């Protein structure tokens, strides 16, 4: 009626880019599923003023710009100043007759902003509560008033910087004081909020003023999304012991029953190890509590494994040698009743390698919960054409029960359905090709194979291997221009952490290769290379439905799960990938013959490590690899600066932890199989249908049901709450009373 176009309006809205990659996006999918399953769950985090940077590509290099996402306001959030809470930093600990007191602290206020999270068509709306840092009004004015009132007001920024900006590292730990402040800030505010809510409920019964916390773990479950909120464990202990005056053992029992920890990575450089000196300065009481937790933990291990000092050293929360550090993963394991990885293979590695000493002690603590994605965003919203086509065949119920996609197996030989699926994909490709033309001024052939590799730029994700394949195809076309090649549009996108030199060089290399390939008349429309600028959720929603081939090519044993892999599968792309993360389970569900699986398995990587990986061996044995590497090294792609990529080549030869050359040959051969199948449109589309039919397991609804039953001990409810305009008494007391997650 207002003459506005909904799609145009959606384009204007900024992404809330409050996470780095898989971790933040997974949390968003989980919130959608928890609301859809009727769980009384809250998502807590920080309301960053500046989210993940906007990426610009200038002259082939990544340039970062601040993401001022709140510039035009955020209509979905509501500030709740009535629930503002104090968070303390610094100070010192005084030990008195009545217990420890943390005094002379600096206070920062946490102001909550609430965003509604609606379930799918069930009239349930949950809350995501994000904390913003505010200086108290007496900030810098309370003590020894020096009379510089103006400076005192300006210094309020120091406190409020806590929620200013998201640290842009994915799978990398940077031990900065501001980052530790952020981690404690979200934890301290959230725990106060949870305890306030518990006390206000009928469960927080009071014995003459003092709250009885016995039922706390039955009413509250807290899931730690990686180790970033690990300070919640000593913080809850501090509240119970110092403030609520519970005896240590009782407090510890309640704490362990309340927390569960999800591990999201096995890369050593990603594990959080905070220097003891920093924690002592910022959170002195918490350090004392961590030491006490550690002492009791080590006493217990010594009783089970007497005289095994090396085991004590390996399992300690404190790492000695050089600067003393706190191993936050060890803290999470000791302080939680359940620990899980995020795909079968990852959970196995967690148990048998990374934390094997802990698994030997308490094997039943370790579980698997394979990640999932919400089909509401990642099918209905981003690919309405495909969603509708599926609904015509199997009804609309699959949106809330994705396992029903298996019914599509009946139509795998249905010629009309095959044509329709191919048609939807073609329409999505044309639409995306138009977008590329508009935004990037590049013309792409919509009938070419859209070969897409979008994710954070990281050595372990091996965008370099894709790059070597592009160069190989390019060289083959030049060698034999008359030969029939299956035309490809290779699309690579993703952000590099601003301080990650190698990742930034990889982006430059891809753009340098694109420059040469896209301007070579011999190649024409047989091969196009595009680096997708500023990859983010809203761009993923455009590119994923248009993709033919999904690249999931991490070195086996490095990608914990991956979730992009699932999004592509659900949207009718075929996967080329290693046996890593959730790819393993995708192959299990669809049949390995319906994915393009190649390369070393975890065992092969371990064997190669044992033997010693020698990159030169592969370089000397494979002429096409040698040619490609020589071109990079010789300045073929950077004629004005021939040694521009010397760091990249040096890494590939001398310290490539992720063994790109070792999988190159298998990858190129597998890509030939891909091209061969793409020539047979019908056979390709049948394989696509088999993949979609097998994607049901990868709904985050399934993941959340498993967390609810195995870890939080709550039952999901499919009860539809009546809308506000209907009387409530009709369904009074039907809602099962359960835990708040």
From TrEMBL:
NCBIfam families: P_ylase. Its cofactor is pyridoxal 5'-phosphate. It comes from Centropus bengalensis (lesser coucal). Residues 726-735 have a biased composition (Basic and acidic residues). It is an enzyme of class 2 (transferase). The lineage of its organism: Eukaryota, Metazoa, Chordata, Craniata, Vertebrata. GO terms for molecular function: glycogen phosphorylase activity; pyridoxal phosphate binding. Keywords: Allosteric enzyme, Carbohydrate metabolism, Glycogen metabolism, Glycosyltransferase, Phosphoprotein, Pyridoxal phosphate, Transferase. Belongs to the glycogen phosphorylase family. It comes from the Eukaryota. GO terms for cellular component: cytoplasm. This is Alpha-1,4 glucan phosphorylase. InterPro entries: Glycg_phsphrylas, Glyco_trans_35, Pyridoxal_P_attach_site. Residues 716-741 are annotated as: Disordered. CDD domains: GT35_Glycogen_Phosphorylase. The modification N6-(pyridoxal phosphate)lysine is found at residue 567. It catalyses: [(1->4)-alpha-D-glucosyl](n) + phosphate = [(1->4)-alpha-D-glucosyl](n-1) + alpha-D-glucose 1-phosphate. The gene is Pygl. GO terms for biological process: glycogen catabolic process. Its EC number is 2.4.1.1. The keyword Glycosyltransferase applies. It holds the Pfam family Phosphorylase. Allosteric enzyme that catalyzes the rate-limiting step in glycogen catabolism, the phosphorolytic cleavage of glycogen to produce glucose-1-phosphate, and plays a central role in maintaining cellular and organismal glucose homeostasis. Homodimer; enzymatically active. Interacts with PPP1R3B; recruits the phosphatase PP1 which dephosphorylates and inactivates PYGL/glycogen phosphorylase.
């Amino acid at each position: 009626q207002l003459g506005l176009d909904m799609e145009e309006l959606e384009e204007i809205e900024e992404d809330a880019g409050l996470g780095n990659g898989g971790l933040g996006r997974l949390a968003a999918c989980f919130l959608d599923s928890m609301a859809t399953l009727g769980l009384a769950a809250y998502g807590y985090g920080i309301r960053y003023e500046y989210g993940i940077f906007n990426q610009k590509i200038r002259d082939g290099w990544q340039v970062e710009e601040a993401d001022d996402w709140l510039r035009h306001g955020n209509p979905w959030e509501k500030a709740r100043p009535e629930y503002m809470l104090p968070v303390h930093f610094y100070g010192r600990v005084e030990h008195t007759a009545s217990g420890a007191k943390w005094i002379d602290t600096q206070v920062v206020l946490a102001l909550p902003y609430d965003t509604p999270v609606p379930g799918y068509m069930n009239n349930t709306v949950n809350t995501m509560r994000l904390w913003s840092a505010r200086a108290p009004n007496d900030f810098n004015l309370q003590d020894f008033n020096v009379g510089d009132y103006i400076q005192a007001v300006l210094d309020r920024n120091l406190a409020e910087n806590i929620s200013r900006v998201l640290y842009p590292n994915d799978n990398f730990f940077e031990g900065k004081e501001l980052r530790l402040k952020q981690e404690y800030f979200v934890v301290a505010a959230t725990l106060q909020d949870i305890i306030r809510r518990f006390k206000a409920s009928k469960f927080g019964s009071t014995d003459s003023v003092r709250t009885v916390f016995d039922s706390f773990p039955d009413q509250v479950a807290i899931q730690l999304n990686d180790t970033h909120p690990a300070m919640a464990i000593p913080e809850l202990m501090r509240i119970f012991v110092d403030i609520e005056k519970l005896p240590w053992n009782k407090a510890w029992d309640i704490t362990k029953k309340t927390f569960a920890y999800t591990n999201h990575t096995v890369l050593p450089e990603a594990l959080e190890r905070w220097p003891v000196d920093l924690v002592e300065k910022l959170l002195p009481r918490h350090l004392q509590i961590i030491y006490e937790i550690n002492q009791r933990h080590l006493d217990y291990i010594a009783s089970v494994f007497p005289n095994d000092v090396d085991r004590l050293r390996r399992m300690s929360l404190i790492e000695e040698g050089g600067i003393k550090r706190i191993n936050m993963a060890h803290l999470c394991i000791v302080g939680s009743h359940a620990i899980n990885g995020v795909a079968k293979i990852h959970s196995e590695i967690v148990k048998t390698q990374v934390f094997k000493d802990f698994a030997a002690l308490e094997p039943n603590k370790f579980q698997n919960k394979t990640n999932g994605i919400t089909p509401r965003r990642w099918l209905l919203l981003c690919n309405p054409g495909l969603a509708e086509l599926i609904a015509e065949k199997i009804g609309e119920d699959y949106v809330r029960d994705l396992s029903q996609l298996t019914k599509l197996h009946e139509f795998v030989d249905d010629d009309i359905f095959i044509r329709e699926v191919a048609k939807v994909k073609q329409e999505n490709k044309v639409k995306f090709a138009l977008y590329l033309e508009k935004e990037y001024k590049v013309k792409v052939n919509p009938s070419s194979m859209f070969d897409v590799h979008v994710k954070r730029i990281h050595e372990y994700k091996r965008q370099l291997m894709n790059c070597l394949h592009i160069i190989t195809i390019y060289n083959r076309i030049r060698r034999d221009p008359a030969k029939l090649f299956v035309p490809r549009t290779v699309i690579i996108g993703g952000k590099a952490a601003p301080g990650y030199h190698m990742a930034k060089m990889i982006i430059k290399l891809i753009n340098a290769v694109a420059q040469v390939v896209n301007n070579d008349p011999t190649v024409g429309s047989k091969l196009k290379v595009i680096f997708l600028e500023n990859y983010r959720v809203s761009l993923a929603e455009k590119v994923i439905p248009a993709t033919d081939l999904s690249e999931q090519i991490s070195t086996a044993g490095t990608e914990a799960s991956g979730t992009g892999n699932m999004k592509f599968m659900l949207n009718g792309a075929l996967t080329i990938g290693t046996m890593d993360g959730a790819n393993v389970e995708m192959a299990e569900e669809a049949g390995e013959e319906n994915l393009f699986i190649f390369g070393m398995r975890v065992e092969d990587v371990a064997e190669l490590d044992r033997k010693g990986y020698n990159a030169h061996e592969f370089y000397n044995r494979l002429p096409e690899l040698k040619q490609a590497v020589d071109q990079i090294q010789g300045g073929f792609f950077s004629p004005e600066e021939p040694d521009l990529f010397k760091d990249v080549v040096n890494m590939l030869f001398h310290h490539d932890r992720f063994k790109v050359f070792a999988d190159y040959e298998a990858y190129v051969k597998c890509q030939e199989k891909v091209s061969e199948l793409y020539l047979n449109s019908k056979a390709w589309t049948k394989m696509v249908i088999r993949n979609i039919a097998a994607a049901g397991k990868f709904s985050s609804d399934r993941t959340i049901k498993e967390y609810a039953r195995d870890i939080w001990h709550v039952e999901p409810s499919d009860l539809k709450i009546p809308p506000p305009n209907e009387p409530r008494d009709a369904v009074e007391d039907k809602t099962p009373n359960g835990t708040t997650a």
